[in-house]
Amino acid sequence: MTTVLVTGGAGYIGSHCCKAFAEAGWSVVTYDNLSRGWRDAVKWGPLVEGDIADAETVAAALRQYRPDVVAHFAAYAYVGESVSHPELYYRNNTFGTLVLIEEMLKAGINRLIFSSTCASYGIPMRTPIDEEHPQWPINPYGWSKFMIERIIEDFSLARGLNAVMLRYFNAAGCDPDGEIGERHEPETHVVPLAIEAAIKPGRVFTINGTDFDTRDGTAVRDYVHVTDLAHAHVLGGEKLLRDQGVHVYNLGTGNGTTVKELVDAVGRVSGQGLPVAYGPRRAGDPPALVAAAGKAKRELGWGPRHSDINEIIDTALAWYRGRM
């Protein structure tokens, strides 16, 4: 059986990917320090508790399980936090990945799926954004991921590392079966915050920025269902078993939704209006991020199947109502 070691597999996207790998017949091992993940989200194989910057623990896990592929999600991912505390992001995301790659190669393991981000593009020069678009991040989170991409390219040339780098646009939604969902502390992601405002008394949803150069003044994002993202990782793993080199793919729908449109959709799907307040732009927020995802379709056979905004909200709403 093909084995995948999933770093950050107790987190939001990582846990959904663990499920997708398991359903595809892979043996799944989660590696997570549980600082921002959840023990009860580890349902598809053993958990190794450890930090990616702890070379000794990483090496021991690689020796014990001998994974064919490492899928790397372990990272801090709050844009605002990265602006106020950049040291966390360069130490954990960038340095931690360097340790992971070094230990993989020492163990003779050279296949890596990397969870990257559209934040590496910065403020887009054109939309939709394809993989050839220049990368110039505008926040430390984006820079930390951009640096990792560079590290992967350099290790590929120097040491034969093979990688699939997946640049997500806005991950959203929850497992349609309700087994796992989206949990962050603190919660900063727009879909769960909007849902909480709709279903929890006293909550107010804040729209950050109404003066962007967009069709209604609010930020535009390309929301892609987390289950679709998970499927892309399985396809990426299968590609690594066949092909060498470094392969980069955007994962998005090609359709942008403004924050105001998202608010309207949450009200429509939930059947409950939500109170809205207005605030300033968040530091490091581009006005619009929309993917050109044709390369993933051509080379991986991937396409979004659950990423209609109504389905995204419906699955997330079911998850949150199930936990009330």
UniProtKB/TrEMBL annotation:
UniProt keyword Disulfide bond, yes or no: no
Domain of life from the UniProt record: Bacteria
NAD-dependent epimerase/dehydratase domain sequence ranges: 4-252
Pfam families attached to this UniProt entry: Epimerase
Pathway annotation from the record: Carbohydrate metabolism; galactose metabolism
Family matches, as SUPFAM superfamilies: NAD(P)-binding Rossmann-fold domains
This enzyme's EC code(s): 5.1.3.2
Family: Belongs to the NAD(P)-dependent epimerase/dehydratase family.
NCBIfam families per the UniProt record, alphabetical: galE
Protein name as annotated: UDP-glucose 4-epimerase
Gene for this chain: galE
